[in-house]
Amino acid sequence: MPSISSKGQQMPESPIRKLVPFSEIAKKKGHKVYHLNIGQPDIKTPEVALKAVREAHIDVLEYSHSAGFESYRTKLAAYYRQHQLPVDTADVLITTGGSEALLFAMGCTMDAGDEIIIPEPFYANYNGFSVASGITVVPVISTLEEGFALPPIASFEALITPRTKAILICNPGNPTGYLYSEDEIRQLAALVQKHDLFLIADEVYREFAYEGEKHFSVLSLPEIAENTIMIDSVSKRYSMCGARIGCLVTKNKEVLSTALKFAQARLSPPTFGQIAGEAALDTPLSYYVEVLHEYEARRNTLVHALSQIEGVTVAKPKGAFYCIAKLPVQNADHFAQWLLESFDDQGETVMVAPAAGFYSSPNTGMDEVRLAYVLNETDLIRSAQILKSALAAYPNKK
Known about the structure:
The protein has 398 residues and is an alpha/beta fold. The protein is built from 13 helices and 13 strands. The strands form 3 sheets. A 7-stranded mixed β-sheet has the order 2-8-7-6-5-3-4, with helices on both faces.
């Protein structure tokens, strides 16, 4: 029998999706499952985007330019300029989701065996993208006790070797919800300048910053324009995860021309997704205001409810729509599966994402889960009640 590649064997399972079979079994039993495991918003997609797709007059569903529609790139650049970011049409390459933009960024900047430093916990797919690209993740640990703030710059610098090519951050963070300050971004900027590294910033949650906090983009720093690659997506901003449209933005023309070669190899990004993405840029400001208010209220509801459960510690996020909670259990993977297989509260249970999959350091985050507050407040309160009952009944507590 032919053997599977070592790369294939090393590809990690998604901590977000690997429990889906157990969720399906729970539902077949007639149990209602509250999904706190995945960042799939229930907020309605802007009508202007849906209308554009419905009313698109297309006789032939053609390829687009490999870099994406020029009209979309131009309009997207204007959106960034409205946010005081110096972006031109030529700085933007449209991708099949933020995921492809990250793969392109890694492919453009690193060879097999090179290293990328990432503060952990981090978006689980960074592990998978790194394996697929043949590069090594070097983690620098942030902690729940510190609210997942940026680790000291000295911790980053101590990890830099001749094989280090980039630092990758997610701002605001998935899975932590931490929002990096301007000072923290400037510290990273000085570090990548000093060591001539790339700074790759995943900014797909840029609109979600709470309590008057402002997102500070890496694109705001002209002194590192050649070092900087920004990743963005329509998935969360417009609740359009299924559109599979993202982008890579950089002032580094060599990076962009190289990314275009990867883009040409996959031909073009999805046409209907681009139509929706371009139209979504006409979304009225009121949409963002309402969505931001809704998520901030949901954050407050969930964090308060979790903090009332004995033995649970939670870091209050400043952005995005996730939080990490430490539970009084020995193994969150086992607990998450047990919730679906063996527990229900009046026919209802909860699906969570074990946080160990958001770390690359072995045996780290074993008692933590990531929770996405993408449900309405009533469902979040009920979910917390179920978690409280489950933790009281769980046989393998600490």
